[in-house]
Design goal:
Structural class of chain B: mainly beta
Largest sheet of chain B: 6 strands, mixed
Helix content of chain A: under 10%
Radius of gyration of chain B: 13 Å
Number of strands of chain B: 11
Radius of gyration of chain A: 13 Å
Oligomer: heterodimer
Order of helices and strands of chain A: EEEEEEEEEEE
Order of helices and strands of chain B: EEEEEEEEEEE
Largest interface: A-B, 30 and 29 residues
Strand content of chain B: over 45%
Largest sheet of chain A: 7 strands, mixed
């Protein structure tokens, strides 16, 4: 158990819909990261938040947005969903910047299926 | 542009033998590398890392080798155990090494047969 909690574990929805994925980081971790893993792909970095502020952005679509709340949990919002958005979405946390370089603690992921 | 590549999607080895997982990178600015292991229905977990100032790092049965001139790293597992069966990802931090913004390879699925 990494200490990172993601909900829901599975989600099935239709094209054009909007969903919210939730992540609770490890206790004490200030940094939250979102990654997407599509079929046969490695993990793709989407976005990072540190203590409520956006710190880094990857290849995140404009239809996607995220935020980190004062209690440090984070939400990833996916809107106008397309079939290609079907993927595993992982949240990870770290103590950043004091943590071991690059070591992240991942949740179990939220599997999104868009029909 | 795939800056970190794992060209072998899968690898099968016998229990007790050595498993060698390979990873190539194209960005010579990368100065730190990590290996993560992932079991089905779980998130990736950190396994071992190496800084570019070293060419080898060992942790128990796991050793990572770095060849900077070839832009190649490999993970050796000796001896391999059935519990090592998982997907292995190599990764490198983008930008500053003190960041969790990682670029991952596509992963190699290791099967260790009893």
């Amino acid at each position: 158990d990494s200490g990172v909690t993601q909900t829901p574990k599975h989600l099935i929805t239709a094209t054009g819909q909007r969903v919210t994925l939730r992540c609770s980081p490890r206790s004490g971790d200030l940094s939250v990261y979102w990654y997407q893993q599509s079929l046969d792909q490695g993990l793709q970095f989407l976005i990072q938040y540190y203590n409520g502020e956006e710190r880094a952005k990857g290849n995140i679509l404009e239809r996607f947005s995220a935020q980190q709340f004062p209690d440090l949990h984070s939400e990833l919002n996916l809107s106008s969903l397309e079939l290609g958005d079907s993927a595993l979405y992982f949240c990870a946390s770290s103590v950043y910047p004091q943590g071991r370089t690059g070591e992240l603690f991942f949740g179990e992921g939220s599997r999104l299926t868009v029909l | 542009d795939q800056q970190v590549k794992q060209n072998s999607p899968s690898l099968s080895v016998q229990e007790g033998r050595i498993s060698i997982l390979n990873c190539d990178y194209t960005n010579s600015m990368f100065d730190y590398f990590l290996w993560y292991k992932k079991y089905p229905a779980e998130g990736p977990t950190f396994l071992i890392s190496i800084s570019s100032i070293k060419d080898k790092n060992e942790d128990g049965r796991f050793t990572v080798f770095l060849n900077k001139s070839a832009k190649h790293l490999s993970l050796h597992i000796v001896p391999s155990q059935p519990g090592d069966s998982a997907v292995y990802f190599c990764a490198a931090p983008i930008g500053s090494s003190n960041t969790g913004k990682l670029i991952f390879g596509q992963g190699t699925t290791l099967q260790v047969k009893p």
